[in-house]
Prior knowledge:
Elements: H1 2-23, H2 27-47, H3 50-68
Helix pairs in contact: 1-2
Amino acid sequence: MEMALIYLILFVIFLGAVWVYFNNNDEIHSIAAISAGLIALIWIFILSPLWLQFFITSILFIICRHIYAPDRKT
Length: 74
């Protein structure tokens, strides 16, 4: 139960950082929001179980492969 609470707190921090980034025009606040959001996402990834880390890494690998892969139409 306590791990779920930690995930929830980190996710709320991440959502707050995203909200600050999109609703604030000040550059310093945007940089701080990006930093806080990235730190929260890293902690979520570190605290997650190994199978979930593999799943997240696989999804990110597939997305990056589709973005950076050359066209296969030829």
